[in-house]
């Protein structure tokens, strides 16, 4: 594995920060996904095996699909335990910021983290990191923040200290961000890392089933309804859109994570290059986007939906105006953006749009 991707000086600095710290907080972005939780929990297991006191503080609740991860019961969602989260952050002498590149991705938790006197280390794979950390490891070419965490552990010479729990969390991050090694995993080294994780006793079939497959009956029915009644395909734009209202979510007893993965399904359709999912919430519409063949959905999300992300997996929010009619306004904005981005679709070679 190529350890030269890191500057020796940065690894020395990281080692020094870890050696000098006793209370370490690990944190991530809002609506934490498998990579955010896998990376923070994975590093937390590793650091506690070095004798550090660690705590994972997330801005809000993780989805139920991650409950199987070792250490999940000790995780501190700041929306649920605000005082405890503040106490942990105030008492920290080192903070790892995992799977996000700007404080705004932490919503209400941002001031506590940026305002903390603790040294901060970013472990992330999004383009264009803000400079709010003392040490920034930002590698957009990596599959996941969890892959980066593994490489950092290896570069520190701590692979031997990694136990099965740490490996399980890190492997879950890689598996969720690559959709079980189907996207963002063209680097052969990612498979070498998988091998090293399997050598630690990781149970990959269980991770795949728990993190990517299992859903509730209600969630499956919501997804079936969305595909049957709410999916629109725009062949002229090579795009697909699904919208879900608050009422529809109520009808299917929506819980956080219930629509996870839905945005990917329209990409199965021949000719569809990108897919958007717009979910109404109180106060905003949550935007989720996926694409194939390098179509830059992150540009649509950053230009029109105050968001961003990766080229083929991005998201954002739409908060304009009053609740009434917001979903429709968000949808109309997306249709305008789709027209604007037609030339980007045309840039893809016709053979690439193999699905037509
Ligand atoms: P998802 O569709 O799973 O919510 O998000 C996919 C990816 O898009 C995330 O990993 C993250 O990189 C990015 N993303 C999602 N929502 C937002 C957002 O509100 N703001 C920004 N900047 N990125 C987002
Ligand atoms: Mn990630």
Can you put this structure into words, describing what you see?
With 356 residues, this protein is α/β, with parallel strands linked by helices. It has 2 domains: 8-212, inorganic pyrophosphatase (n-terminal core) (Alpha-Beta Complex), CATH 3.90.1640.10; 217-352, Diaminopimelate Epimerase, Chain A, domain 1 (Roll). Helices cover 39% and strands 17% of the residues. It has 13 helices and 12 strands. The strands form 2 sheets. A 6-stranded parallel β-sheet has the order 3-2-1-4-5-6, with helices on both faces. Helix 2 packs antiparallel against helix 6 (164-177), helix 5 runs antiparallel to helix 6 and helix 6 (164-177) packs across helix 8 (204-213). The two termini are 39 Å apart.
Main sheet summary: 6 strands, parallel
| Overall SS class | alpha/beta
Number of domains: 2
How many angstroms separate the termini?
A: 39 Å
What is the CATH topology classification name of the largest domain?
Answer: inorganic pyrophosphatase (n-terminal core)
Percentage of residues in DSSP E strands: 15-25%
Spans of at least 5 consecutive residues with low confidence: none
Mean pLDDT: 97
Shape: globular
Write the layout of secondary structure elements.
Layout: H1 8-20, E1 23-27, H2 34-49, E2 53-58, E3 76-77, H3 82-90, E4 94-98, H4 110-115, E5 119-124, E6 135-138, H5 145-155, H6 164-177, H7 188-198, H8 204-213, H9 217-230, E7 231-234, E8 239-244, H10 246-251, E9 274-281, E10 284-291, H11 297-304, E11 308-309, E12 313-318, H12 326-340, H13 342-347
Parallel strand pairs: 1-2, 1-4, 2-3, 4-5, 5-6, 8-9
Antiparallel strand pairs: 7-8, 9-10, 10-12, 11-12
The protein binds guanosine-5'-monophosphate and manganese (II) ion.
Guanosine-5'-monophosphate (5GP) binds next to strand 11 and strand 12.
